[in-house]
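G., the chain you wanted modeled:
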Amino acid sequence: MEDLFRRYRKKVQYIDTNFIRSFIHDVNWNARLIGIKGARGVGKTTLLLQYMKLNYSVNVEESLYVSLDSFGFKEKTLVGLADEFVRNGGKYLFLDEVHKYANWAQELKNIYDDHAALKVVFTGSSLLEILNSRADLSRRAIVYHMQGLSFREYLELETGEKFDKITLEDILKNHLKIASSINSKVKPFRYFERYLKQGYYPFYNEDPDLYEQRIEEVINMMLEIELPLLRGVDIGLVPKIKQLLSIISESVPFIPNVAALSQKMGMHRTTLMTYLHYLEEVGLTINLQKEAKGSVRLQKPAKIYLENTNLMFALSPSNANIGNARETFFANQLGYKNKLSYHEKTDFLVNNKYAFEIGGKDKSKKQIATIENSFIAADDIEYGYQNKIPLWLFGFMY
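Predicted structure as tokens:
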């Protein structure tokens, strides 16, 4: 236990709190059992350590941070750790990377039931199954999903200015006023292209020259460790899956031909459909579905995007399609808190109500002229007009 405390204090000592994600205010930290899941690299560990530094720096021995993939934890069990921690006066236990621990769900249930005064926060892969776990943590844990930096957060980091989050409805009704207010502080369009290439992952400013390499490492960890470990994906198919991701980044956008893909990748159609579902689960793709009933896993996606534009430019730095990048940005920023689906006449249907066409500054309204509640999200413009809205503005929604 002493070694775990030493490691924890060292981590907290050096964590920077100059910039803190607004996500920290979305979490109900008073709950007894909190789960934070998200793709690798989006900043879950940093968020935990920042919260601990801000809240437990006085009575530091009442809190403990443990990464379950660290050597200091290898000989312990979660239940044993919690028991010892509580005996020594511990009140707040933070567990990172719980998916690396085989029996995490059952032991978290036991900890919850045995220690009513202990508060536990855990993080893990996007693949964590809370509802389907044998322990059924769904009745006990409040689970949050964390995403990478929004364009709003990136602007705050780059400029030092503060910007409020904006709802979709407010953007649709008041986009000209909002864009004018933002442009009076900074010129967001100057930063937009850079964000699309190098701004989604919070580590973007640590060593910019190695950013693409670090993204490749993130992708490799997801494909070579998380998917085989948590979903049983055949490690031998990883090179073909990487090739598929590159193809998606270069498409306009990618409309899957399942028969051709399954033949090319050497797998049964059902297996391919399952793998496409896993790629979305792990946080590497966004699969746009037509409205249909039944299992999403067995449905063919109408379109497939990479989860964020930084993935596109890391996988295909010279051949990433700009039209695809615009749609990927829109899907990433809106899909976090809204329901996206396929629309037959436009690019997206949002919340089963709003139709959106994505394009450049010269995109005309002809295509959406007869469609109710339809809008254009246009790149290369600072201000919109009527139902034509700057694409970058949709990056202020979280």
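The longest helix spans residues 211-231.

Shout if anything looks off.
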